[in-house]
Amino acid sequence: MDATGIAEAMRAQDRRRFLPREVADEHHRDVPLPIGFGQTNSQPSTVADMMTLLEPFPGMRVLDVGSGSGWTSAILGELGGPGSEVFAVELIPGLVERARAALTQPWVRVHQARPGVLGLPEYGPYDRILVSAMGDALPEELVVQLAEGGVMVAPWRDVMHRVRRTRGELEVTDHGGYRFVPLRHTRF
After folding, report:
1. What are the domain boundaries of the chain?
2. How high is the pLDDT of residue 183?
3. Which of 70, 77, 42 lies closest to 56 in space, CA to CA?
4. What is the rounded CA–CA span in Å between residue 133 and residue 148?
């Protein structure tokens, strides 16, 4: 998916719908916005960068870890279309409920994260995995959920990484410095 297709998907899933009323008027700003519970809705340029690195495609099975407001999940649903399956996972119950209320695509489902379990291994493997919270190292628990030929985009140690699985081998590339809220419920 090219940058134009990603920009169109982001416009189609209006950021305002995923923001609390008190910050919704700031939806156009390229900054992270607070969504409560100490969490943020990532700035649009960061989301666009992550989507580009992820290489989404129609009909993909994708896992969105740390889905927060549900905005990235909705964008992934837009990019994948009705033939795709988007599995979003979020730790904070209040954000899970808000995201479920904001989402309109039946192929995008938000799951409550289980403490000590990273991702949703029972639904894998996934063609794509997007992680929107900062870890300390390569999230091995997610690597095993990645399908052959799959791509994961995840930040750790303040750097955005793309991980591609090819014939069981991992190719990990660095894509610049980023800041995210910490990924709190995992062991990585």
Report:
1. 3-177
2. 66
3. 77
4. 24
**DSSP tag of 182:** B
Residues of the chain with pLDDT under 70: 181-188
Distance, CA of 70 to CA of 14 (rounded, Å): 11
Closest CA relative to residue 56, chosen from 151, 142, 168, 163: 151
The residue type at 146? L
| Token pair 């989507």 in the structure block, residue | 51
* Residues designated catalytic: 42
* Alpha-carbon span 179 to 140, nearest angstrom: 21
Q: Give tens-digit pLDDT for 157-167.
A: 889 999 999 99
Distance CA 105, CA 26 (A): 24
Q: Strands (DSSP E) along the chain, which ranges?
A: 33-36, 39-41, 61-65, 85-90, 108-112, 126-131, 146-156, 159-166, 169-177
- Name the CATH superfamily housing domain 3-177: Vaccinia Virus protein VP39 (3.40.50.150)
- Contact (Cβ atoms closer than 8 angstroms) between residue 87 and residue 63: yes
Q: pTM for this structure?
A: 0.93
